[in-house]
From TrEMBL:
InterPro entries: NAD(P)-bd_dom_sf, SDR_fam. SUPFAM superfamilies: NAD(P)-binding Rossmann-fold domains. This is Uncharacterized protein. Pfam families: adh_short. The lineage of its organism: Bacteria, Bacillati, Chloroflexota, Ktedonobacteria, Ktedonobacterales. It comes from the Bacteria.
Length: 60
């Protein structure tokens, strides 16, 4: 799971940069949009999905 750290940091960095841009550009009536898709079916998240299936069974 630690191999996903760079991906998560990059995604968080884009979100943070957009928030900063928004605070700088809003006074000039400039809109900033950020499209941050959720999980996409790629090999990088295969282990996460496998773990999720393992723990998503009925409780009890």
């Amino acid at each position: 799971m630690t191999e996903n750290v760079p991906y998560c940091c990059a995604k968080g960095g884009v979100t943070y940069a957009d928030a900063y841009d928004l605070s700088e550009l809003a006074p000039h009536n400039i809109t900033v949009n950020n499209i941050g898709p959720g999980a996409i079916d790629t090999p990088i998240d295969a282990d996460v999905k496998a773990e999720s299936k393992k723990i998503s069974g009925p409780a009890g």
